[in-house]
Amino acid sequence: MSYIKVRILCFILLIALIFMPLFDNAAEGASFLDSPKQQENRSDNATADSWLGMPAYDSDWLLIGPRPDPVVIPVTHNLGGNINDYMVTLMCLDDTSLGTYNCIDNGFNYNVHWHALTNTGVNIYVIGGTKPDYVRVRIYMPTPLFDSGWQAIGVRPDPLSWNIVHNLGGNSSDYLVDLQCQYGSLGIYDCIDDAMNVNAFWHKLTNVSISTFVSNVRPDDVRVRIFNPHPAYDSGWTYLGTVRPDPGVVIYTHNLGGNVDDYHLDLQCWDTSADYQAYNCNNFAYNNDSNWYGLDETTAYAYIAAGSQPDYVRLRIWTKMSFYLPIIVK
After folding, report:
1. pLDDT tens for each residue of 135-160
2. Which letter does DSSP use for residue 282 in this model?
3. Please, are residues 93 and 105 in contact by the beta-carbon 8 Å criterion?
4. What distance in Å separates the CA atoms of residue 254 and residue 233, rounded to the nearest whole number?
5. Phi, psi values for residue 291, rounded to 5°
6. Model pTM?
7. What SS3 class is residue 59?
């Protein structure tokens, strides 16, 4: 081997030795914040990562138009395959005040929901006179770390809390939870009925189990899946204080840039009472405690209901590059 080749090889090895610790530190820093109560500690036995991936279907923004009455927008996706592999998400766009938001307005009312999911289409139900000018549905097909399958709830004179054991371990703050419901006329749906009532929500998420609180009217079946994809941005748990006589706003500066149409957002709440802990921001009165809105390339906002349950809120964002980048923890 020539003298020049030996010097080049030594130089490459030197560069590798210098930069390898930096990559190790970046990977080490890509862990999530623990929950506010520090209930789980991340360990070597933490669950493996899964990727949210690109959506298998994206409707793009659908113009809704004026509507004094509710409207149903049939969306044809023609994905085929097994609909139990689908994860359906909605985003809304209001041209006047809310901007891009999660289809829950600042009065904490659901404006839009989806139902009647099949392997060729899904229906979008929009309440008359509500905020959004546009709605957008995306369908992902990620592989879950846990899938409860459809759990038949049975006849119930009163609402009930249904506990599901997943035993995933690791840190439950890493989890992304997807809850689906099934009921006669609605088919497979997002657990919000056509009167925009919450029929089921998840709460008490730990690294061993999760509970679903189900109304006494519908659904017939619920299904919980848990994923663990790395977000591009994680706000960590933001403390709200225990007394909130007025609604509050939390500003999240994520600075992710790019196209916000590629983002997927998840807002979680945490209440220190044993009945809630980590939950999806719906409460036992079937009301919403917090929503996100005003999403752009640098910022998003969480709006918190006055006197509502959570002591903490947390926002995560996934982008096209979330699989490759370490998370940003503020």
Report:
1. 999 999 999 999 999 999 888 888 88
2. B
3. no
4. 6
5. -135, 170
6. 0.82
7. coil
